[in-house]
Amino acid sequence: MADSFAALIQLLAKLPGxxxxxxxxxxxxxxxxxxxxxxxxAAAMAEAAQRIRACSTCGNLDTADPCAICADPxxxxxxxxxxxxxxxxxAIERTGAYAGxxxxxxxxxxxxxxxxxxxxxxxxxxxxxAQGVREIILAMNATVEGQTTAHYIMDRLAALPLQVSRLxxxxxxxxxxxxxxxxxxxAALASRQVLKGAG
Amino acid sequence: MADSFAALIQLLAKLPGxxxxxxxxxxxxxxxxxxxxxxxxAAAMAEAAQRIRACSTCGNLDTADPCAICADPxxxxxxxxxxxxxxxxxAIERTGAYAGxxxxxxxxxxxxxxxxxxxxxxxxxxxxxAQGVREIILAMNATVEGQTTAHYIMDRLAALPLQVSRLxxxxxxxxxxxxxxxxxxxAALASRQVLKGAG
Lengths: 199, 199
Hints:
The structure is a homodimer.
Chain A: H1 3-12, H2 20-31, H3 34-51, E1 53-54, E2 61-62, H4 68-71, E3 76-83, H5 86-95, E4 100-104, H6 122-129, E5 135-138, H7 144-157, E6 163-166, H8 182-190
Parallel strand pairs in A: 3-4, 3-5, 5-6
Antiparallel strand pairs in A: 1-2
């Protein structure tokens, strides 16, 4: 196998979701689509590596700083949604149901990996919270790490005169009770919504 | 989402094994490893797209033409192994058990997709067969398409004074009979190897 081929496969195999075998398949697939895919992808990658940077306000990735969301005057600057990762920001943006700003942590607190509050920009979040923010929504993943981080952030924000909320737990839309784990079902029961009062 | 980001994700999603969701993950993964992965991968891709070409003798992909295998004098030019795809050539090379040359078809005969013998270089194979080749090994996949193509090639080579063989069917090494399909087991029975004669 040619050296430049082996190098390509080795790099492709580092992508999440691709192992050595699928990296070989991907490399062959690319070589068969040189003009239509391989060269455009190489160019797009080089361009993105050069132009995309983290927004200094919220941590979102964009070609502009501040990012398009922070720079948009139609988005409510009084509402800040805290997410672990840019992928979570995209997930919320895809709903089209949120018109506030964001704060991207870039991870969760982890004593094991040596990730402390300063690595996640929690000081910056507290400073933003003190400057005209009405509500901070904690939208961390419902994992132990995510919830630990959420608790820590809540403690840090406790003294500030703003509302702190978190995403609701419950039955996923379209989900079947029979297949749901006990934790989610318990949370859905505890947070049940009243449809009609007792009166 | 920034335009250059969206373009990158759209191109990544075209790779085999990556869908829209995993392409987003891969793009974020790359952007977090700009220097260590993203720029090297972009460069490797651009270089491979420019330098790697099909060997005009055997169809293998390499930076040189003839490819390293065709140019290697230690490899037996009298033995040609016919494979569907470069990935199959690599698979055979990984065994380290083959020291002949190759012929890469680049697909299988398919009336539906309009792929005829001329698209697979079968004429070129017949010409190679007429020039000092002792044996041609048909190593197509054990699929209907692969075996149809193998039959066609065998017919084309019938008049030439050379041996034509195919890979053995049988129990995979480490395989359990209980989990084997009937076709493989029948083939293994029919091709059983004598350990001790009746005498």
